[in-house]
What does this fold into?
Amino acid sequence: MGTINVEVLGAKLQEWLVEFGIQVIAAIIILFVGIQIAKLSRNLVQRLLKRTKVDVTLISFTGNATYVIILALVTIIVLGQVGVKTASLIAILGSVGIAVGLALQGSLSNIASGVMLILFRPFRVGDYIEGGGTAGIVKDIQIFNTILISPDNCRIIVPNSKFFENSITNYSVEDTRRIDLIFGVGYGDNIQEVKRLLTEILAEDKRILKDPIPTIGLLELADNSVNFAVRPWVKTSDYWDVYFSLQETVKQRFDAAGINIPFPQRDIYVHQV
It folds into this structure.
């Protein structure tokens, strides 16, 4: 009798192992296929949005969101395949989700901020911005984070909520920018000649816009110099090229014209007693 029970138990165990093994294999196959479907769906959504000429920022965000949603659904299906009661699991997850949500307020805030960034678009992929305590070119806006590339080619990952804690400066959104420079000359120099020379330098640079008209004005009678404010307008793409070359040109032309560019100095008098 005992032998029969052992044999029956062994047969049932073997049958259960075979059945469970098939379920596990099926779950693995479903998981693998689901991941591939999620990737294909993300790529398909991105391709369709590109054809409609939607903003690049929205394309990336929507593609990533599609991938995460499909992957979550696949996970639920896989758990159901191996015998987990998904209805009860969803109820439990709903209850646990409240507690987890409170513990992960920062992450949920990042998700909400990511949605806000997509809706209101304070910046887009490719813009050079300053915000979240750093600055760089926007490479990607993801669900939790925004990825920036710094001018020295470092990757900066900024939580989305950081952008709503302080102001955001977008240097790329406008077509034109103003360059603000200050040039100091000596008190013995002819200020009319200085203004004439600065006007001539700006007029010769074809990258400087005629409208708005560049500003050249005496800004300050400082301790060691007479300071002129020079504020030309340029296309945003030309900003740094003009910024650097203009200073070099002014230095060369001032030297050639004999205009002194003073620097802070002190005169020391020694009295012998």
